[in-house]
């Protein structure tokens, strides 16, 4: 199995913080510890859930759910507003810990990242020991728990990180991969959403073994270029490298929903949340922006973007809501949506702009 999947296996860690936003709130406010906590919205039912603590999840409360529904499912839930500036600061702490191990760190969001530790000799060269060291350091320095998945490619590492949550490590070795993939339900494959899973079920495909038995030609015919990806992951192949963070000419934030969403109000609330996060990032970097872009990914993984550029810079996160509303109205709504994102570009340093204004006014 090792030779057929990867002749020289890489060592990839996927690190995922446990209920990140909610855990930060419970860390900072002891009275919230052990309580069913919802980050986002308010008790009246307005807004959507940005994060749910482990205490509220048994009630069926999850991210992207309306707060009205969350309140119905758990009347005792406590609602707090997100503090993105705090989450970003903690995320930076965690990033520093990861970078102290390897420069090959690819952040996916504030609370998760891939690390490529191939060839490192520290911790006896064991990726499992490295993952456990990372989790221990994060707990010691931030007071928060993380879960880790260790494998030889990104897909399996990400799946593994969810196996022993919260506060655990799971390993999928090349020797174990074939048996693991064969019994894995289609819904558990990273990159296969509910709509795709439904189509695969209609084809008689319910687990990895079923998927592996279908030719790439059939899958490509049914799903386009995504079909080749499904064929590869069924065979344990994922050659995507871990890409370390590069200097970007834009600042943005996006989120993928647990379940695809069609409701307009819920989608707009999520867009506003990502907008608030992106604008905070921009402020922290002392930047201003003239262009805003709305990104939408549909249930079938197709995606579109819509942008608008102003003559003057955006002055606040709220000032962008009008344009985000207009951009959102312009997008097709034939399919449910699995991801929304907001990006600011056409950036300039706020200090430079102020200096120029001072010069003109002097």
CATH overall fold name of the domain at 251-361: Dna Ligase, domain 1
* Residues in helices, as a percent range: 25-40%
Number of continuous helical runs: 14
CATH class of the domain at 251-361: Alpha Beta
Order of helices and strands: HEHEEHEHEEHEHEHHHHHEHEEHEH
Which whole number gives the mean pLDDT? 89
Strand content: 15-25%
CATH architecture descriptor text of the domain at 251-361: 2-Layer Sandwich
**Intertermini distance:** 73 Å
Structural class: alpha+beta
As residue ranges, the low-confidence spans are 1-6, 352-362
Strand order of the largest sheet: 5-6-1-7-8
Biggest sheet details: 5 strands, mixed
Protein name: DNA polymerase IV
Main location: cytoplasm
Cofactor: Mg(2+)
EC number: 2.7.7.7
How are the elements arranged and paired?
Layout: H1 2-5, E1 12-17, H2 20-28, E2 37-39, E3 51-52, H3 67-73, E4 78-80, H4 84-99, E5 105-109, E6 112-116, H5 127-142, E7 146-151, H6 154-161, E8 169-171, H7 174-183, H8 194-202, H9 208-212, H10 216-223, H11 226-234, E9 251-261, H12 264-284, E10 287-298, E11 303-309, H13 321-329, E12 337-349, H14 350-361
Parallel strand pairs: 2-4, 7-8
Antiparallel strand pairs: 1-6, 1-7, 2-3, 5-6, 9-12, 10-11, 10-12
Précis, in short:
With 362 residues, the chain is an alpha+beta fold.
Observed structural traits:
12 strands; MutS, DNA mismatch repair protein, domain I; Dna Ligase, domain 1; disordered N terminus; 5-stranded mixed sheet; 21% strand
